[in-house]
Design goal:
Length: 251
């Protein structure tokens, strides 16, 4: 119960990694806000948490909208009076197709950046006043190893995750005097229930052979690091990116 009675906002919490984080945080005693664009999915995860005896609030949220992210923070404060943790998980990835960088449509680039980059900034911006006032808070951003790899045919996604690391470092610097820790987690290719046209099961198994731990990464492999960064155990860690990638190496 390392997060007992803390209020945690998890964006994109209605499926995939977000759902895994939400259930894990609730299991550690947190009151969880499921900020999810798909209202039905968000409500389903909140119901799972409540059925297990936890506390949850599902909020239809568009992280690319400043008004929506402000409403998200206001609703959390209205319900529980504080915001202790923000986990920026929402991102566009599963729906994009692999293509050379000079074939990516401009609209697709802009749509992805609006969620993956502007969304992270807007959510940080929305919770910052409460965290400054409390003089304590934890912000966790989900990056990706694709930035380190410079993976081909995903340039907008690669660039967006590089920006997430930049936001992590910059916001950590600006909020450090207020007792707010800001860190990122960088996963390898993680298999969830969300279908992806560009990644088959066979492809994921082949990709895992580049890891020191040669199995496909699952959401459960990430929750321990997220709980650590959300808890008081990480109070002297900020501005860092932790690779949780099974020891990924390309030779």
């Amino acid at each position: 119960m390392r997060l007992q009675d803390q209020v945690a906002i998890i964006t994109g919490g209605g499926q995939g990694l977000g759902r895994a984080f939400a259930l894990a945080f609730a299991g550690e005693g947190a009151r969880v806000v499921i900020a999810e664009r798909n209202a039905e999915r968000g409500a389903a995860v909140a119901a799972e948490i409540e059925a297990a005896g936890g506390q949850a609030l599902a909020l239809p949220t568009d992280v690319a909208s400043e008004a929506s992210t402000r409403a998200m923070a206001d609703a959390a404060l209205d319900r529980w009076g504080r915001i202790d943790i923000l986990l920026n998980n929402a991102a566009i990835f599963s729906t994009i197709k692999m293509r050379p960088f000079d074939e990516i449509p401009v609209q697709e680039w802009d749509d992805l950046m609006a969620v993956n980059v502007r969304g992270v900034w807007l959510c940080c911006k929305a919770v910052a006043p409460a965290m400054r006032a409390q003089r304590r808070g934890k912000i966790i951003n989900i990056a990706s190893v694709v930035f380190d790899l410079g993976r081909a045919n995903y340039l907008h996604y690669v660039a967006s995750k590089g920006a997430v690391i930049g936001i992590t470092r910059g916001v950590a610097t600006e909020l450090g005097d207020y007792g707010v820790n800001v860190n990122a987690i960088s996963p390898s290719s993680t298999q969830t229930e969300i279908p992806r046209e560009t990644v088959t099961r066979e492809g994921a198994v082949a990709f895992a052979q580049n890891q020191t731990i040669k199995r496909v990464q699952a959401p459960a492999d990430l929750v321990g690091t997220a709980i650590f960064l959300a808890s008081s155990d990480s109070d002297f860690i900020t501005g860092q990116t932790i690779n949780v990638d099974g020891g990924l190496r390309f030779h």
